[in-house]
Design goal:
Two copies of one chain form a homodimer. By secondary structure, chain A is an alpha/beta fold. Helix content of chain A is 38%, strand content 23%. Chain A has one domain: Rossmann fold, CATH 3.40.50.10300. Chains A, B: InterPro entries: CoaB-like_sf (IPR035929), DNA/pantothenate-metab_flavo_C (IPR007085).
């Protein structure tokens, strides 16, 4: 059993907690306590990629390809499905509601006249709709950000632990693209690597698999959904099944880099067959996002899980 | 002389041009031709970090720490100093004018009522000022974006070549944080590296120094300013001087990772002593940015260069 491997403990001993950690944990604690009192469901949505610094005075780092599309859109749909959401995201990655402004030019939407600054007529509908949605949900949304792998893992552990108070009302939706490899702090050079030294060899260690302690120790009662991103279709279902068998959590969502916006595979520990979600061409025409369907599907599974696990 | 080293040519042979390259080159060409007709100065401002993919179907990449603060603020000051600006920037890094909205919550600035969507009274002044500045300068600003090291180098070469028509009216301000190391396409694995393979060893090659062909072949008449970022103060001035001696361009701006927003050193090929620019505490209180002073200083040097090099 993966828990006997102590490497996850060593990771936390060797990598210091992030700046502002206690303040963040207090925010999370209060958010969970209030939700628990109201018997509200809470989804932890992790989103974006983690960085792995190559130098202690960091100039260079390894990053994972992730804009945060999956996480930020899913967070919106969880909010709309009645969940409160802790959005644990990579700093400057996409955020719920704000993501719709990316690529839009806000200064072209604003009309400046000598006595007034106004939203241009043709942008009022779109901007108003988004602002209204955001304003309606903002009290149910707690935004917490990270940059490095180590920051992320510290915050993940703490959030999962704070969510214990919610029992089976808690759902963990682990959409962040977490690095598999890192350079331990003790092996990092202090200063920027000089290019005059010629070609560069980097030796990266495996990141301990945190799903093992997460499922068993940090969030033993929560409904846990993880993602498996591959680029090779032949490995997808096998890898997703393997992850579920290894960590004993609830759902693995498998997706391919090139088709992840239109096709995913859900593997559930409670059912023998994988379920596919695929956007049809009419879905695409109507602007339906696959995360809407994923969240809708997960909510039903979470309902069942809650019915099976609630006490009293 | 560095030009005899053919490695920069080999780089372009081995790394294909980016998607949309010709469209971008056409935009740049037209922008430069129109500026040349009006005898306007044009600054090429490069900004943000370059990525180095570790896999061909890219999931992981090495990145350079850079939000694009230096480049995006400098671009504003060049515009205000009367330059037209080509802003060659990392996709999603900070942009002139828009950078001021980062960390601001646009949905909190908007007031939604049943019959109107408006800018809140207390945000009108700030938003109006920015929108007005942007709208005044937008025709003098050409935005071109890149992600990878290879995309950046292709676009840098092409832009420099198109700027030749401007002769000494052209200024190149190379503030992008360009990777020193990369993995040649031929040595990249096709699919995502599997973590089941154990620890990962990466072997990175040196990126050819493009300043050599840039100064000599691509932009022989432009006024060229490069940056040198270090984390070790004792290396700063030596490294800046070395760069100037090696490439024979005009100014190197040396800066340290930790003090780069308040202190830089300018080394000029025409003067024996380095010049320091340092923000005073009253500058900081008044919201003066160091890029304002850098651009002011460079404009004087460019004036002199132009006077010495213009023909006819």
């Amino acid at each position: 059993m993966a828990l006997e491997d102590p490497s996850w403990k060593i990771f936390f001993e060797e990598n210091p907690m992030p700046i502002g950690f206690h303040e963040n944990v207090n925010l999370i604690k209060e958010f969970c306590q209030q939700a628990a009192m109201k018997k509200n469901r809470v989804a932890l949505v992790t989103s974006g990629g983690t960085t792995v610094p190559l130098e202690q005075n960091t100039v260079r780092f390894i990053d994972n390809f992730s804009a945060g599309t999956r996480g930020s859109s899913s967070a919106e749909y969880f909010l709309e499905a009645g969940y409160q959401v802790i959005f644990l995201h990579r700093s400057k990655s996409l955020e719920p509601y704000f993501r719709h402004l990316v690529g839009k030019n806000i200064f072209e939407m604003i009309e400046v006249s000598p006595d007034n600054v106004a939203v241009g007529k043709k942008h009022q509908l779109e901007l108003g709709k988004l602002a209204e949605k955001y304003q309606r949900h903002r009290c149910d949304l707690l935004m917490i950000s990270f940059s490095t792998l180590s920051d992320y893992l510290w915050l993940l552990q703490a959030t999962a632990q704070q969510m214990q108070i919610l029992g089976p009302l808690a759902l963990l939706y682990l959409a962040a693209a977490v690095s598999d490899f890192y350079i331990p702090a003790s092996q990092m050079p202090c200063h920027k690597i000089q290019s005059s030294g010629g070609p560069l060899s980097l030796s990266l260690q495996l990141v301990p698999k945190m799903l093992a302690p997460l499922v068993t120790l940090w969030a033993p009662n929560a409904f846990i959904v993880s993602f498996k991103l591959e680029t090779n279709e032949t490995l997808l279902e096998t890898k997703s099944n393997e992850a579920l068998l290894k960590y004993h959590h609830h759902v693995v969502i498998g997706n391919l880099l090139n088709s992840r916006k239109v096709h995913v595979v859900l593997v559930d520990s409670n059912s023998p067959n994988a379920e596919e979600i695929r956007l049809s061409s009419s879905d695409l025409e109507n602007g339906i996002e696959i995360e809407f369907k994923i969240v809708e599907n997960l909510k039903i599974r979470h309902d069942q899980y809650y019915a099976d696990h609630k006490t009293g």
